[in-house]
Design a protein that fits this description.
single chain; alpha/beta; TIM Barrel; six-stranded parallel sheet; three-stranded parallel sheet; 49% helix; Metal_Hydrolase
């Protein structure tokens, strides 16, 4: 009987200790200022059926970010993306996509203006702590793909005045500013184009952080060499774990860190590990696009509901094959091992294709903190990873701009 009581006591103490440890990790996560460097959620803000203040479900409507889930996952904010897809390199296309980008910027501004007690626009590094200290979510603005600027670099000042503080020159294909990592043509400029080099100088002058994600390795090297302030990879993985053009090798990773730059780790499954082919799903999506078209920003509520239901049925019949949380953490931990916590952050590509098994929306972000604590990283390391590193880059960009203007 005595032995039985002792065993029960030991079990109780072990459970209590484990519970206390888990709560301690939750408390650490909640104390941190947490920023994600790449939130594609503005693509949803233009939809008539999407309300950022209401809780959604990835299983139901495929969204990954809203205010209730930010609260659940302890996400304080981040960089909300102005994105336009790559199109032809001509004046008409530039003008059309310029207007699309301006509307996307205004959608972000509107999100803030209609929810003034919940969100606040941030433009300098010091804003982040101030905004979170008064209980609001931080809204920095970034641009993925500078293509809508056309060949008129004065437009960068326009977007700067709207709040733009981070800029990626390219996306899936080469454009007027430089080479993409995934264009089938390969490199056509040898990195940045002459106009791309002017873009770097103008971004530096304004105090905009330059983002090399999606860029060809040669483009990233040009950014590192030409930019007067450190550059960022807002959502990128490592070639050591998975050799994909969208990822970075250790040599270039070290060069990025040596220059003061930061890499934010992507959670886009196809860039994390080799996934099996899923031809039935690909064909089903092609049929979906043929039926509804791709100009989704013009859809009314009824069309959106029909598209959402069709996509739900498609995913049910042909489920997506995703990488695992462990796949994601292998990239994260390798990058940390190579360059250390002063040069790493989180940029999971939410609402832009990111998400892995066990971590399909921002409500699960504490998993990252818990895993890194288990790996022996300190609360200070986590503070650097979650926000200090990217805020340092913002401050350095502004300090340089102040010094030359």
């Amino acid at each position: 009987m005595f032995k039985f009581v002792i065993v029960k006591l030991v079990v109780f103490l072990c459970i209590s200790c484990a519970s206390h440890t888990e709560q301690h990790k939750v408390n650490i996560h909640n104390r941190l200022l947490t920023l994600d460097a790449h939130l594609d959620t503005p693509a949803l803000l233009v939809r008539p059926d999407f309300d950022i203040m209401q809780e959604h479900s990835h299983d139901h409507d495929f969204s990954q970010v809203d205010w209730p889930r930010m609260e659940k996952g302890g996400l304080d904010g981040g960089f909300w993306v102005i994105y336009t897809p790559q199109g032809p390199l001509n004046a008409d296309a530039y003008k059309s996509n310029r207007d699309t980008a301006l509307l996307r910027a205004m959608a972000i501004q509107t999100m803030v203006s209609v929810n003034p007690d919940t969100f606040e626009l941030a433009t300098v590094a010091e804003d982040a702590h101030r905004i979170t200290n008064i209980g609001k979510k931080v809204v920095y603005i970034s641009m993925e793909n500078a293509y809508p600027l056309g060949e008129d670099l004065s437009l960068l000042t326009t977007f700067y005045k709207l709040g733009l503080r981070m800029l990626g020159p390219v996306h899936f294909k080469n454009n007027q500013f430089g080479d993409s990592s995934t264009d089938p043509q390969g490199s056509i400029w040898g990195g940045l184009s002459p106009l791309g080099k002017q873009l770097v100088a103008e971004a530096n002058r304004l105090g905009i952080v330059l983002d090399g994600s999606h860029g060809h390795d040669l483009l990233l090297e040009d950014l590192i060499n030409l930019s007067k302030t450190p550059v960022i990879l807002s959502h990128t993985g490592t070639k050591t774990i998975y050799d994909h053009p969208r990822n970075i090798d250790d040599t270039l990773l070290k060069k990025l860190a040596d220059s003061g730059g930061v890499i934010h780790v992507n959670a886009y499954s196809a860039y994390l590990t080799k996934l099996p082919n899923n031809p039935e799903r690909q064909k089903a999506y092609q049929d979906l696009f043929e039926k509804f078209g791709r100009n989704w920003s013009t859809f009314d509520t009824e069309t959106w509901q029909a598209l959402k239901q069709a996509r739900y049925q498609l995913d049910k019949k042909h489920p997506a094959i995703k990488a695992s949380f462990e796949d994601y953490m292998q990239h994260f931990l390798h990058i940390l091992n190579v360059v250390g916590p002063k040069h790493v952050g989180v940029g999971a590509d939410w609402d832009g294709g990111g998400g892995v098994v066990e971590m399909m929306d921002i409500s699960t972000l504490p998993l990252i903190t818990e895993r890194l604590l288990n790996e022996g990283y300190s609360e200070q390391d986590l503070a650097d990873i979650w926000s200090n590193n990217v805020l340092r880059l913002l401050k350095q960009a502004k300090d340089y701009a102040d010094s030359v203007n």
